[in-house]
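Cont'd.
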Amino acid sequence: MKKSHIIGIVVIAIAVFVIISTAGDASTYVNFEEAKALSESGSDKKVHVVGQLKKDADGEIIGVEPGEDKLTVTFLMEDNNKETNKVFYNKPMPPDLKQSEQVVVVGHYKGDIFYAKSILLKCPSKYEEESLQVSAVN
Amino acid sequence: MINLFIGNLGHLFVILSFVLSVASAYAYFRATKKEDISAQKEWTFNGRILFYIHSFFVVGIIVVLFLIIYNNYFEYHYAWSHASKHLPVHYIISCFWEGQEGSFLLWIFWNSVLGIILIKTNKKWEAPIMVVFAVVQAFQVSMILGLSVMDVKIGSSPFMLLRDVISDPIFAINPDFIPKDGTGLNPLLQNYWMVIHPPTLFLGYATTLIPFSFMIAGLWKKEYKNWIKPALPWAIFSTALLALGQLMGAYWAYETLSFGGYWSWDPVENAVYVPWIFQVASIHTMIIFKKNNTALKTSIVLVITTFILILYATFLTRSGILGNASVHSFTDLGLSGQLLIYLLAFVAVAIGLCIYRWKEIPTSDKEVSTYSREFWIFMGATVLGLMGFQVFAGTSIPVYNTILEQFGITSNLAPPAEQAIFYSKFQIWGAILIAIFSGTGQFFFWKSMDKSKLWNELSIPILISLAVSTVIFLVYNITQLSYILLLTAGVYSVVANSTILIRLLKKKSFKLAGGSVAHIGIAMMLLGILFSSGFSKVISLNKSGMMFSRNLSDEMNQENVILFTNETKTMNEYQITYKGQRVELAGVPGLPSRKLIRKTIDEHTVVANSDYIHNEKLVFATGDTLTILPENTYYEVEYKKDGEKAFSLYPRAQVNPNMGLIVSPDIKRQFDRDLYTHISSIPDPDTNTEWSDPVTNIVEIEERFFVNDFVAVLKKVQKIEEIEGVTLNQNDIAAEAIIEVQAKNKTYTLKPVFIIRGKMMGNLPAVEDDLGVKISFMNIKPEDGKFELTIETSQPDYIIMKAIEMPFINLLWLGTLVLMFGFTIAIVRRYKEFKRNS
């Protein structure tokens, strides 16, 4: 066998390994129910849950509680299936959390609480304005 | 009045430049066809003139758009959404390319410049390469065309009027309405790196077209070998620029963003990293080809891959396909279809042409010896390809979902939860191999090698690097295998390439030193990355969170500390104290304390409360009116070591009404490490301070009492004649109480005022935010010489901050400079070779 063939086989093997490991390391978008089922089945793989902060009947955000030392935060999040769950985030509350339109939490369940390793917020961005704002008009 | 003329002019220029690029492509295409020399010359001349006029209009578009931004024509959406009146002139340049359309224009501009340079320097290849250039230009300009053909939107024009983009009732009432101010430039982009990073990166993007054009021309004209020589210096130039552009971006991120580093494996970063990696591989295979005619097919494939990946990067970052996966991709302009056609057109043409000619491309069948330079370079290129492939595979995850959806399959794949780990764990092994190959490959440059010669040559560099790296990993107590190997390989690459460099210098053949200098630079960068990322240490760590739950210790570590004003905490060897807020005033040196000024109705104007002395000079005096940059607040954090003041850092935060808290770090740069500090949170300045219920204290002079756990003393009460903001009548009586509050490091004096006007009693409370204290002087009880004070308390001002130490990060920046120097030597050499032969 020629050297180039050996190298070719090794390269293909590594490429296949890369594909498998990418598929294996890729996270998934799930809802709270699926995330919970996943953790109960013993997996500690981190998943993405997309949702919004829980709001009461008047549209006020409820359930956002910074920790006593302000270095952590817990909040209630409603996933896209309208299921609400408590999320714990071991970092100071992101300042734009309450303004967010959409919250993506990345993490996993521990007991009944979803432990978010990271939070991605989608905020009504200044740079994607669809309408004039009063402040900009005046 | 709305200035319609300028926008129409700009739009006309866009359309003309599009038409001219198509015409130029056609003329050049005709020039490649004709057998007859004079017709060929004629068509070439036509193509050239058309390209020149096209370029003239491109410059016209840029001038018009710049004037719209510069003159604050907020009737135009581009000016309104990217500029504002208070923006300093040098950032107006950044506004220009903040939007997608402007950044396309920048790219188009570079393509024009490069096209003209090629016309001037390479007559032989002019016609075929300029066909490719002009076609690419046509695609690029189509992105900003802003026309609708049969209800299909082609391109997004930067010359759209605000009223046509944004629906607002005001335009129904007054179609000529012009907003008074724009929404301004993203504050994170108001940084000098954002003035030079985009032009560099886009010049890098644009230059990838040159090797690609030569390669296409070579296949097309069956000049399978000759395209390499003119393409090589440009390929090296392009690689250098892409590297420089990425590192400028990394440096900007390090200085401005607060994710705690310079690289986050964000899709937008990866989108450039992947083509760059392939381009690095391609310049190496092209060099081998020049030496001994091998690796031609590999070079062709790599050049195609690089250019296609640049188009793919453009598609990823601009089509909106990344969605939630990236924090900083462009907004979606609805161009995804058009971008996809652009990408697929070039995939089809390049791969089609390649397959069509494949059999004719000369190859060399000889087996490459392990003791040849080709073998090592080839191995290096293979490793680079695999590294690029891994990042490509991970970054494309959002694309898989979209593709599967087209087939009706719902896929819920998300990017890896921990991107940095996902990419680094693979890339580090690639980096180890690259360091080894780049150290070893250099030894084959002079002579044919065999086993024994090679070991003779290598034994000393290997021994030196083993010794050096052993010392380092013992000193730093490195235990992770991949880190030890990268350290050893990196040191080996520096030593081996330095050995070569010294030999070259002895032979006075410095012009050949590009490779070894560039490889030393890369190895230094790898070592810098290894130390600064692998051994970065959060020093604001506290483990108090462990109490929450013991079995979660790792996740429960707090990486932030909360600091109240003037409170000192110990972090590692430092005692740190938050000293209060600082502001930035126009024309005022230093950062004066927020307490020295007070706000007025205009948010850009403030009045001085007291004198400000900086470097023993009076900069402003009480009552002066000053201009403030209202967005920025700096937070003074004093670092002490063993009780001695070491330095102060001033991390910055902006509270943006739309974007929330935007923070930028401050960095203490030391020779062997950086100390990086950023704000994570501050009290919300928009919510009014919540005061506790007032508590009444009846005190006499010199009596001690407690306010918010601090000891306070009423020093005296005195009659005053004047109170700021309140005019006193003749019959009014006013008195102020002078109260000293003893905080940990400082004594504060508060002066609440009590006023009697006729039968009415009033008071002006004194507030000290540092302490979270409000004292009101409510009454005087003359019968027993006592005074009634009420005390309200709130949370004192605080910051939550994070501090990270990054060892040897300077190796990364220094390595970058060395790399650029190496590239420069190589470009000069290869360009001279091209000139000599043409």
